[in-house]
Amino acid sequence: MPNFRAALVVLVALLALMTTPWWVQRTTPTEALALRRAAVDRPAYTLPPDKLKPAQELFRARTALHFAGEGWGILQLLMLLALGVPARMRNVAENLTKNRWAQCFVFVFLFLLTWLVGSLLVMVLFWVIRKSPKHWWFWFWIPTMAGVLFGVFVSPILVDPMFNRFEPLQQRSPALVEQLERVVARSGVSLPPDRMFFMQASQKVTSLNAYVTGFGPSKRLVLWDTTIASSTPDELSGIFGHELGHYALHHIVLGLLFTAALLLVAWAFVAVLALGLNALNFFSEPIDNAFSRSIEHAADVYGQEAIHGIVADPQTTVQRGFQRLGETSLDDPTPHPFVDFWTSSHPSTADRAAFAAAYNPWATGQHPKYF
């Protein structure tokens, strides 16, 4: 009976993961029409020859490094297990000290080279296994999710400022904040100006980005200086509308629930811990990315609708923004469909630009999805 219950939990979690992209956001007829038009119309995102070649080379290099890295992570663990290296490291730890806590620190230091946090997690894991040999995977899942929630909450307050410089957007561009507040007013989401931040990214990268992070008191929107410098106010409204959509459509909460289900499956299936996690990470990647693409597309729809009536031409504004994003990031206009399916957390820039150009829910006989 306990094994049946465990199998049932895993089955339910797997079904939730596999069907998430469909139940997170249902496609409206107007949206489906735009998707069909985007698939057959002329490309809405292209690159000139001088940028197309390096973009294609960059895509091939990223793809090769991605799959080679995933394969090497699994292969090296198989080699370590086949050669009996973990057992030898265990013997070293036991010979150095008789204290179990100290042995754990030594073993994890030898195996992962990530000493403090890794050792603490492994100690908690084995303590849980000793206390509940049959259901340890469930009881360890609870503190793991607590750690995930804590990390999402404190990251924008404590972690992010350690690596990047943030300033209130109100200080940098009061006029831009005033423009963005018009989008906020349409959405009904609570995001006061003091939750909008300017981040200096230009000293490290040339690409464009904006993102939302945190929840509750730590909720905030961040615009990179590269994005602000290269975008018009209307385009920034479109970008902001997309990010605001993540809050209005509860994507952060959905993302946490999705992570909880994924981790539950992970702990339930772990036999050889590190090997199992690496293999699971590889094979769950397309499921995770399918979920991510579904919420990113939903935020695209929300953002384009949110700026209707605020900017003159939402279709052209958003499509032009994706064109600039792709040119700056050297995104391949024609990525390989399999690689895109397996590795991409967002719809391709070409697909997003084509959809933006085709989506017009204010035409006669059509209807917006969110507004």
Quick overview:
Helices cover 70% and strands 4% of the residues.
Whole-number count of domains: 1
Major sheet characteristics: 4 strands, mixed
Number of helices: 16
Quantity of strands, as a count:
4
Strand order of the largest sheet: 1-2-4-3
* Poorly predicted ranges: none
Shape: globular
Decide which structural class fits the backbone.
mainly alpha
Q: Note the quaternary state here.
A: single chain
Q: If you compute it from the alpha carbons, what radius of gyration comes out, rounded to the nearest whole angstrom? A: 23 Å
Proportion of residues in β-strands: under 5%
Q: Average pLDDT, to the nearest integer?
A: 82
**SSE arrangement, N to C:** HHHHHHHEHHEEEHHHHHHH
How many angstroms does the end-to-end distance come to? 49 Å
In helices, the fraction of residues equals: over 70%
Structure description:
With 371 residues, the chain is mainly alpha-helical. The protein has one domain (18-358). The chain is 70% helix and 4% strand. The protein has 16 helices and four strands. It has helices at residues 2-24, 29-40, 49-82, 85-96, 100-112, 116-131, 136-159, 169-172, 174-187, 225-230, 233-248, 251-269, 273-306, 314-329, 337-343, 349-358; strands at residues 166-168, 196-199, 210-213, 220-224. A four-stranded mixed sheet has the order 1-2-4-3. Helix 7 runs antiparallel to helix 12 (251-269) and helix 14 runs antiparallel to helix 16 (349-358). The longest helix is centred in the first third of the chain and has 34 residues, at 49-82. The protein is globular. The termini are far apart.
